[in-house]
Amino acid sequence: MSLKNQVLPALFALASLVEASPLSARHGSHDDHGHEHGEELDCSASGVEAWNTKLHIGAIFIVLVAGGLGSFLPVLGYYVPQLHIPKSALTMGKFLGTGVIISTALIHMLPGGVGALGNPCIGSRMGNYGAWPGVLAIMAILVMHLMEFLLSNHAMGKHEHPHGHGEPHSEESSELAKPATAGEDCDAVAVHTHHTHVHGLSFIDARGARAFHVSTYILELGICLHSVIIGLTLSVATGSEFTTLLVAICFHQLCEGLALGSRLAQMQHKNRAFLRAAISAAVFMLITPLGMVIGIGVRYSYQPNSPAALISIGVLDSLSAGILLYTGLVNLLAEEFGTLEFRGYGVSKKAMCFAATYIGAGIMALIGKWA
Question: What is the pTM of this model?
Fold first, then answer.
């Protein structure tokens, strides 16, 4: 018997099994499909039953403290020496936050977007296209990349001006741009006694500081978008689900706060540096409780399975996933492990930084079981 005659009967047999399976029967016809989901899901259900006013209002302050502790601890440790927080602890918190951010994007946000935009209650409103979460995440990543490119070009344009007798940098500029040879140190190539080379370094520092500020604020934007959603979700949960979710979200806020606070503490401002860092930390601290207050306000009319709610949550989660994924991989993981400061660490400290990153990712992966 030929290979063709052997394969075709097997394919027909497999097709008949799939057609007869319960999954196929569920999707066999449009009427049966709608009837089946009509029994399982009530897309117009609204209101929250067995809502405990004291518990839900108390939870706002619990989450507020957890988020504030995470975001303010690195900032205060950096700007208030009297607290005597070791610099090594702040460094470990920074690398812990790197793992937290990447894990949050892939385990908390992107699956949330997939679940919301794939909900049967949306129907064909999204064009029966199941890859929208990935598309939105990619769009966020590409926009992030474009923004950083434009801002770095803007910074470069502000610093490119003639020197000396109206002539732009020539030999010295090209010498500054030369890569280090095998026997030279990177800093030795960049730093020479001539004033133009020092100016070049100040330009690089200024551009790096600007990019660091932008990436940190965009990181906070992505975190805050997601935080509003989890605050709303917590407020409309009840019973044992509420208790479990509250504990998970408190750890979630603590870890994300440490990640963001570590970045805020490193930001260099010419004026009122501590005040600016404190305001950004306070925004993170307040954003999840704000989502909880919104949830309390709409608890009787909120329709979690309505198409409008599902699409809004799915789009925000997917965009947030792209923002945090880009920031976590490009501005945190690749950047922090590639600095001269990190390369100057001893072997044991480098190992601790890697371990902190893995632990941060593992903690958020574990919390993803409940929140």
Answer: 0.70
